[in-house]
Amino acid sequence: MSQLSPCPAKIEINEVAPRDGLQIEARFVPTEDKIRWIDALSATGLRRIEATSFTSPKAIPNLRDAAEVVTGIQRREGVDLTVLVPNVKGTERALACQVDEINLVMSASNSHGLANLRMTPEQSLEQFVAILELTQGSGVFINASLSTTFGCPFEGEVPEARVLELIEQLIGLGIQGVTLCDTTGMANPSQVKRLCEAVLKRWPETPFTLHFHNTRGMGLANALAAWQAGISRFDSSLGGLGGCPFAPGASGNVCTEDLVHMFEAMGVDTGVDLDALLEVAATLPDLIGHDVPGQVVKAGKSTRRYAMP
């Protein structure tokens, strides 16, 4: 890579399938199976794994075993354990389990915030103040995920100025990292590159993560555009698991093994053992009871060669 290029030579993957992927599945994956699965993921070279969400069991029954999962998995050096928390109570539960990172969530649009969280962005920010007070001195990294950054399923376009205003408020509160989320797969590469360039220029010391859904088949293209702007951290989901209740029938998050395969083929270091990752991905249909959208696990790596017919 040219020294003048903003494209990072190395990227970091945050695996979100255990949380974002499992939360909308039709059936509950047994706790012991989740633990074995996360342990297998942590052995592939992934640097961060979002293991679960400390939310109400009534709200997300599939993650009702959050504490059991977090305390049951094997903690591996070099792999940060991340959890999503929706409120102060969830934060207290997460801290008791000694997690490495807490991921807060809010929306950039009023309507999505009210539909998904029952809070406006301003109300979410007020709640974050109490959470940050609770976590002060804990040593836990605090990240905030900003949903509908690239568009709202109810309102449509979310002005870039509004996104930048909310990021500024988050950083001003003391949030250490920010994830920009394409919640229902509305982003396009040009839009992604423009916004990523803007945030990196304005807050060069803040670690930004990009979270893409593959709802309209543009997940990898958007990740590539973000990388070209200088982004080096990405959320992704093994097998492409996940989705959004506000995009019925949509496929899930950008697929981890497909994302790793793309970057590694380009000579970008992901730190992930793709062969080991594909072995774990191959177990997904049995784990969740249905096929998954991931493509590389089915077609094989681009280096695969076939015998002449």
Automatic annotation (TrEMBL):
Keyword set, alphabetical order: Lyase, Metal-binding
Keyword Iron-sulfur belongs to the record: no
Taxonomic source organism: Vreelandella titanicae
GO biological process per UniProt: ketone body biosynthetic process; L-leucine catabolic process
Signal peptide: none
Name by which UniProt lists this protein: Hydroxymethylglutaryl-CoA lyase
Domain Pyruvate carboxyltransferase intervals: 11-278
Pfam families: HMGL-like
Family: Belongs to the HMG-CoA lyase family.
GO molecular function: hydroxymethylglutaryl-CoA lyase activity; metal ion binding
InterPro entries assigned to the protein according to its UniProt record, in alphabetical order: Aldolase_TIM, HMGL, PYR_CT
